[in-house]
Amino acid sequence: MKNRPASASAFGLPSTSSRRSVLKGAGLLGLAALSGGGLVACGQSNTGSSGGSNANTVKLGLSVPFLTTPFFAVLDAYTKSEVQAQGISMLETTNANQDAGKQLTDVRSLVSLGATGILAGVVDNKAIKPALDYCEQQKVPFVALDDAPGAGKVYIVVRADNKEMGATSAKKMAELIGGKGKVLSLQGDLATTNGKDRSDGFREYMQANHPQVEVIERAAKWQGPLAGSITATILTQTPDLAGIYMQADTTYGSAVLASLKSADRLYPAGNPKHMPLVAIDGGAEGLDAVRNGTIDAIVSQPLDGYAKYGVEYVKKAAAGEQPKTGKTDHNSEIVEFQGNLMDLLPATLVTKDNVDDKALWGNSPKAKA
């Protein structure tokens, strides 16, 4: 399979083939979704209209941007568990494979197959608008997970404050490098809100608090091989590079660490050749890299919360409930964002001190399956 997920050996860890099975299974699921579209056996199937308030009439459709990363493979697994726990049904997950046009088709297909609510990570935050318009016309609520659309109406967005995660990463990086030096920021896809927010948060914090830190920004577009290539180039061009900020350890980790190894810079913290590394996401192998000192810190996303509250919001939408701004009962805050409501879930800075916390999604059995 192309764009294989990060392997443990590439993180400087023993091989863990069992973890890769999550991706293999998820990839097969994505292929099945494209050719099938049947119900997952997670509760009763829908026999009512899209506006039904009974949980048994709620049929969820999940559209993910790609399944070649543990992040979305585990999100898929969490969502299936929540569907079972909350007593609703679910169509087979669709995999857009980073194709914005295909995601539009996927969403339409899910609606045509009877989805009464859509959960989706967004491939392109502007290109998604026709899908949102279609769902609005069909009276099918759309809940965006992890990223926010740049145009169009949704029922709600469930994500962490990505700008704040970028700032938290910058604060930790500044601490690691003594507040000065050149730092590579491996950006995500700037066509996504997350890619922009994680870049802005990191850069703006450094500009405001550590002007002696020079941020070298390169867009890796959520593509591991591209991130590895960029890292190799910057290491050659900038021998005094002081640190690397990865906006997605689950996508960039293996390739970046492979490039560091080739450049003889892959050493644990405490070694004079160690390259300080800070990341966002918090996958299983990223957490193992924190344990062995290869990565200094990761801002772990509340991936389980994305699934839990995403499914809950689909049910609330079916029942005719409307979310409101303000504090929630799950330690978050609902705010307005570009004409939509957004539930901002808290993220966690992970270091060696708390890396074994079982509440972290990267430590869950789903992430290690």
From TrEMBL:
Keywords (A to Z) from UniProt: Signal
PROSITE patterns, sorted: TAT
Domain of life where this protein originates: Bacteria
Intracellular or extracellular location(s): Cell envelope
Main location: other
Signal peptide feature range: none
Protein name listed in UniProt: Ribose transport system substrate-binding protein
Similarity comment: Belongs to the bacterial solute-binding protein 2 family.
Residues in Periplasmic binding protein domain copies: 61-321
Gene3D superfamilies registered for this protein in UniProt: 3.40.50.2300
